[in-house]
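As described in the Methods, two query proteins were run sequentially through the folding procedure within a single session, without resetting any intermediate state between them. The first query and its resulting structure tokens are shown here.
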Amino acid sequence: MRIDHYSLQSRLQTQTAKSKTGLDAADVKEREDKKLKEACKDFEALFLSSLMKAMRKTVHKTNLFGSDSGEQTFQEMMDVEISNAAARNSSMGIADMLYKQLIREIAQKTPEISGDKQ
């Protein structure tokens, strides 16, 4: 039996591609999982920011200490940062609940992700 250089190289490339595909699939799943977690945290931050904005509207404003547009801008920026910090620390748990729900939905629609072969 004769094995030439090209067939050996072709077999080696095929095996390498298969092993890389297995690793890449795990890496892709991990990256997609990370993206989903970030998106859930971003959603929680956006929700909390909207909630704080709505709460601020209910507070009666006075001119006791004076006010200007800079103060309002600073207040809005501070509310966004507080919302982002709360979302990063999972203080409300909205991102975690949303992530679990979305993972469950994804697993039902794509059985190969959850490991179930149907």
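Immediately afterward, the second query was submitted; its sequence and tokens are:
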Amino acid sequence: MTAKFGNQDAGYLVKAVSLVKERLVFLNDIELFGYLFQATEKYGETPLSKIVNIKASSFNPGAFETFLKEYTSTDTAALETTLKDFANSNEIKAGDLMKFLRVSLVGELSGPAIPDLIVLLGVEETGRRVTNCFSQL
């Protein structure tokens, strides 16, 4: 797995696989979820076209990174509430924020729950992916 997914520790692999286990039929199917191991460099035109509203909103990638760094819990239910609070306090539609985060983190419009992804990937990687995606809009 090192060649395709980098050098991941066993704990990370267990957590990553647990997020997509219902979608796995064969072990090789994990390759369909490469975003768990490697960030999307260039986002597709279709997913980007679905999240252009975030560019017109007051979303600021730097402010979002600061917000993430202040959130230190790994409680995904609380993180979901906190994300919605962030959207409301920044006058962003929660649905637009969540859709943007999904594309930023996964590169597609479907995938595991956003709070689960943020906790798995960590603050630094989440921030990099958000900034990269936002720059491509």
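The chain has two domains: 1-38, 44-135. We note this only descriptively and draw no conclusion about the first query from it.
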